[in-house]
Amino acid sequence: MTTIDPVWATVAELSRAFGARTLSPVDAVEALIGRIRRRNPVLHAYIAVYEAEARLAAEAADKAIRSGHRVGPLHGVPIALKDLVDLEGRITTGGSKVWAERVSPVTATLAERLIAAGMIILGKTHTVEFAMGSWGTNTHMGAPRNPWDLKVHRTPGGSSSGSGVAVAAGLAPVAIGTDTGGSVRIPAAWCGIVGLKVTAGRISTYGVLPLSSTLDTPGPLARSVEDAALIYRALSGPDPRDPQTLAWAPTDPLPALRRGVAGLRLAVLPDVERTGVEKEVLVAYDAAVDTLAKLGARIVRLELPHRLSDYAAATGRIIGAEGYRFVGHLVDDESLPTDPHVRPRIQLGRTILARDYLLTLAAREEHKRAFATALADVDALLTPTAQTLAIPIDRADQSGTAAHFTRPGNYLGLCGLAVPSGFSADGMPTSLQILCHAGDEATALRIGWAYEQAAGWMARRPPEP
């Protein structure tokens, strides 16, 4: 008999249980489908659930494992996909009512790799329309509900809103999101889970509906840092259909995961950047820094070459210009039912001149070099993931963004990890962001794992109705 609950088990726990044959993928999928049926009508994490196909895949995985034909550690493990990820022949809406009948022409490379690893796709999760928004709202398709507050509909974080809610609420052990300005890390932060933003080019974007070809990065939302590392290892690597991936050699973060942080140099938020951050967020952040210091990390104070708000604003210009390239014709057509909050965000790109866009890209390269020089001697920059806790959804400023601390990671070409760092007095999650140099996902995961093990926040679950 198994000793783990398949609904709350991590990817690593499921993998070990399947390998030891103390749990069957069939039982795990059945338990998750049952929970999705009970909880999804309220939480609204999934836009589509592939019940019949998931059951068939689970039966096949169970037979393969029992017959000695296990293809790897992820065989039989369920996963959810953000509704930007194409699966040939299936509908992928990109969170848009305009695309409610859009049938995917291809299967995304990342989905091919997950399936090749033996993973079972449970379904598609909700997203902000066109992935353009950090609050997690969607006027026409519905906004997922943050599972940490059963009374007030709070922001789940966007744009990978459904993926964050699904993992946090026990509707999937892991899910795929995309991060252009924080869309993996913000849902992870507000839903109390782990989110990995990879360096652009580490994971192929082929077959993923684009927002910004410069900044888009797919990545996992998971219950543990180890799980994020396992999924990252399965997805990373060159793909001829995405030229950005050819610049990076595949890396395995698992061997270094448990090496600890002793001797690592970790930079902290300059005092000037603490303004505007909620008190409870700062208290949790300072406690997380102290925890890492006690683990042997060297805490470094330095000045950043620019304000984080400058990086965030420039990110918005790039997303606006490139997003308008892809879906400007849709938001400009007033007869189409595009989200009234998303439309003006995309239409910002309509007024950006080609010269200004190219100047922004050139300035970005200068800023990347200056930042790399300033932080050359440190292993990571630590910040809160978001300035606030999840807020009531009707208080979300749709003309603003929650991505103050996350956008700089995309703009500067960094990788980043969001890990739970505590809870507010009323039980809402806080989150620590670990930003590392381009291509250094292994270090971000290593720091995150050491902190996670010392802090123990991952054991806490949202309230049940």
Mean pLDDT: 97
Helix content: 25-40%
What separation lies between the terminal Cα atoms? 28 Å
Content-based structural category: alpha/beta
Report strand order across the widest sheet: 1-3-2-4-6-5-10-11-9-7-8
Share of β-strand residues: 5-15%
Report on this model:
The protein has 465 residues and is an alpha/beta fold. It folds into 2 domains: 11-303 and 373-459, Alpha-Beta Complex (Amidase signature (AS) enzymes), CATH 3.90.1300; 308-369, no CATH class. Helices cover 36% and strands 13% of the residues. An 11-stranded mixed β-sheet has the order 1-3-2-4-6-5-10-11-9-7-8, with helices on both faces. Helix 5 packs parallel to helix 6. The longest helix is centred in the C-terminal third of the chain and has 24 residues, at 308-331. The radius of gyration is 20 Å and the shape is globular.
Summed up:
The chain is of the alpha/beta class and 465 residues long.
Keywords:
eleven-stranded mixed β-sheet, globular, 13% strand, alpha/beta, Amidase signature (AS) enzymes, 465 residues, single chain, 36% helix
Helix-strand layout with pairing:
Blueprint: H1 11-20, H2 25-43, E1 46-49, H3 51-66, E2 78-82, H4 109-116, E3 120-125, H5 161-168, E4 174-179, H6 185-191, E5 194-197, E6 217-222, H7 225-235, E7 265-267, H8 279-294, E8 298-300, H9 308-331, H10 342-347, H11 354-374, E9 380-384, H12 407-411, E10 415-423, E11 429-436, H13 441-455
Parallel strand pairs: 2-3, 2-4, 7-8, 7-9
Antiparallel strand pairs: 1-3, 4-6, 5-6, 5-10, 9-11, 10-11
Helix pairs in contact: 2-3, 5-6, 7-13, 9-11
